[in-house]
Amino acid sequence: MSELAGISVEALRGLPEVTPGFDLGAALADAIDLSDGDVLAISQKVVSKAEGRIVDLDGVEPGSEAIELGTRLDKDPKLVEVVLSESRAVIRTDAERGILITETHHGFICANAGVDASNAPADGSVVLLPADPDRSAREIRAKIAALKGSRPAVVISDSFGRAWRLGQVEVAIGCAGLDPLDDWRGRKDTVGRELTATTIGIADQIASAADLVRDKTSRTPAVRVRGLSRFVRPDDGPGCGGQLRPPGEDLFR
Asked: Is residue 221 part of a domain?
């Protein structure tokens, strides 16, 4: 007889508006039942808001590079200045479509360095990525453990576009208590051939699965995923830094 396996993915609704200084870990611990084998997937936006990663564009003075790029891409030079300040390199620009792709200081390749005005707290403000998403995940996990005694894994995710496919998907930008990659190299496939390249992006797949039950137009910033305890570890683990492909192996740069 065949066996069935599965996971459950449930979104948390009704979390209050998050502002700088908000104790996100405590709020999540109070709002949802969490066990050691669970994974809690959290939207980057609420993490950034709680950490005060918000910039009022009225107070930004654009430099010459931002003014030149803003004019060429038809973007607000103040916004471009913020993007440049969050970037270690500009990777691609497209004046016709107004696209600015950069490498962030974390090493992420994404549009506008992840700087985003959607769901920002006020007109004229933008939200930045967390300064250290892995650290953010560890701190949230530690707060939940201190208050509840359980240590679920934590994944912090954001929407990224992809160079080779249409449509945005959620990817993990930070995690704690989780092996973000499941390396199958050296194992055998169903007919006995050795796998030589297969490495599964577990943290990214959790982030994408969580997004399927999240409503981006209402407050559903956190999702509990159950059934993946085999990937959850008692220590915080390596974080998401090891997922970044080295530039020398990146065929798109």
From this structure: yes
Q: Of 42, 57, 87, 61, whose CA–CA distance to 221 is shortest?
A: 42
pLDDT level of residue 219 (50, 70, 90 thresholds):
confident
- Whose CA is closest to 173, among 188, 158, 183? 158
Q: What's the whole-number average pLDDT of the chain? A: 92
CA dihedral 51, 119, 24, 161 (to 10 degrees): -80
The total of other beta-carbon atoms located within 10 Å of residue 234's CB is 8
Q: Give me the residues paired with residue 93 across strands.
A: 100
Q: Does residue 250 lie in a domain region?
A: no
Whether pLDDT at 184 is above 80: no
Neighbours of 228 (CB within 10 A): 18
Cβ neighbours of 68 (radius 10 Å): 13
Co-location of 11 and 92 in the same domain: no
Residue type, 29: A
**DSSP letter string over 178-214?**
B-SEEE-TT-B-TTSPBPSS-EEEHHHHHHHHHHTT-
The yes-or-no verdict on residue 14 having pLDDT over 90 is no
Helices (H) then strands (E): counts for the chain: 6, 12
Amino acid at 32: I
Cβ atoms 229, 37 nearer than 8 A:
yes
What would the pLDDT profile of 75-107 be if each residue is shown by its tens digit? 999 999 999 999 999 999 999 999 999 999 999
Bridge partners, residue 56, by sequence: 125
Considering its fold, how many domains does the chain have in total? Answer: 2
The reply to whether 249 falls in a domain is no
